[in-house]
Amino acid sequence: MYIAMNRFRVVPGSEEAFEAQWRNRQGRLSEVPGYVEFHMLKGPKAEDHTLYASHTVWATKEDFVAWTKSEQFRAAHARAGESKVQYLSGPHFEGFDVIIHEDRDGKRQADAA
Questions:
Q1: pLDDT for the residue 109
Q2: Into how many domains does the chain fold?
Q3: How far apart are CA 67 and CA 73, in angstroms?
Q4: 41: which of 17, 24, 95, 110 is 20 to 30 A away, CA to CA?
């Protein structure tokens, strides 16, 4: 399993536009192999930004990489430059190989990284 995250530092006053942009965006993730789930997370507010993170879970890192090279990825990001949202800086990517996974029943498994 692989988790891909992008952190966004959104300038105060742009939070509503940022959230609306993501709510109204056509999702294309379910069209590609290996996609498991997506979350948009809202984190703490600082003086100069509100922290958000997109969080996608993939069956493998290779599935995630294939998504980034897909037509669905290009279509999902085609209008990114038209955003009215103000950011402190561009998104910061972080990728993680899952080494231990525990489900809601407490069943734990070690994943091969």
A1: 84
A2: 1
A3: 6
A4: 110
Provide the CATH number for the domain around residue 48: 3.30.70.100
User: What pLDDT, on the 0 to 100 scale, is given for residue 110?
Assistant: 78
Domain that holds residue 11: 2-110
Distance CA 73, CA 85 (A): 20
Contact 50, 12 (CB under 8 A): yes
3-state SS of 66-98? Answer: HHHCCHHHHHHCCCHHHCCCCECCCCEEEEEEC
User: Residue 22 class from Cβ within 10 Å (0-12 exposed, 13-18 middle, 19+ buried)?
Assistant: middle
Residue 112's contacts (CB-CB under 8 Å, 6 or more residues apart) are none
Is 21 strand, coil or helix? helix
Concatenating the DSSP letter of every residue in 37-58 gives EEEEEEEEE-SS-EEEEEEEEE
Cβ atoms of 1 and 36 closer than 8 Å:
yes
